[in-house]
Amino acid sequence: MNRPTQPVTYRRLARGTIAMIMRCSLWLGDDHLLSVKSTGYTEEYVRIYLKDLKGIIAQRTKTWMLLNILLGIVVGLCGIGILNTNDIFSPGTIAFFIFGAPFLIVFLVNLFKGPTCKTNLLTPLGLVDIPALQRARKVARLIQELRPLIASHQGSMLRSELLSRYDNQRTGAPSTPAPPPTP
User: Fold this and answer.
1) How far apart are CA 90 and CA 174, in angstroms?
2) Residue 22 and residue 126: Cα distance in Å, rounded?
3) pTM, two decimal places
4) Backbone angles phi, psi at 78, to 5 degrees
C-alpha cells in the first residue's frame, strides 16, 4: 500500500548568472542540496544528499581583482576628464559624468560583493561544480549554515580523530586498533 509522501520544501541558498546566458541557483531541501542551471530553454538539476557530502572546495579567482582594476582605470580617467574641464556644466563634463557613472556603480557593487571564487562540492562520485556560488562571502555563509545540518545527517568527528585517520591512510596503518588475540 502506497503512503502519501509530503512534498519537499526548498529554500534558495544562492543565485548567480554565468555570462548573462545561464542562470544558476542552489536550493536546500530536507536532506539534500539541489543545484539548478537554466538557460531559458533547458534546465539541469543535480541533487547532492547531505549524508554524501564530503567537502566544499572554493578556489579564489582573479576575476574580482581584474574587474576592479579595469573599472578603476575607466572611473579614474573619467574623473581626470571631469577635473580638467573649467566649467562644471560644460558638455564635456556632462559626457564624462554620463559615461563614468555606470562604471562607478559597477565598480562599487563589485567591490562590496567581495572576492570571486569557483566552488565545487566533493561527493563520493567526484566533484560537482556549483556555479551559483561565485563569491567567497556566500561560500563562507553556506558553510556556516550547512555545518550543523551535515553533522545531523553524518554525525560529527573530533579534529584529532580526523587527523589520525588521515595519517593512518597515508602511512597504510590500520585506522582502528586490531582486536586482541583470543586464547
Assistant:
1) 79
2) 23
3) 0.70
4) -65, -40
Per-residue pLDDT of 33-76, as tens digits, reads: 999 999 888 999 999 999 988 889 999 999 999 999 999 999 99
Q: From 2.30.29, 1.10.510, 2.30.30, 2.60.40, which CATH number describes the 11-61+116-150 domain?
A: 2.30.29
Phi-psi region of 156 (alpha: psi -120 to 50; beta: other; left: phi over 0): beta
What's the rounded Cα separation, in Å, for the pair 15 and 17?
7
Q: Is residue 154 within 8 Å of 52, Cβ to Cβ?
A: no
Residue range 71-129, pLDDT digits in tens:
999 999 998 988 888 777 888 888 888 999 999 999 999 999 999 999 999 988 889 99
> How close are the terminal C-alpha atoms of the chain, in Å?
52
Amino acid at 87: D
DSSP SS3 for 11: strand
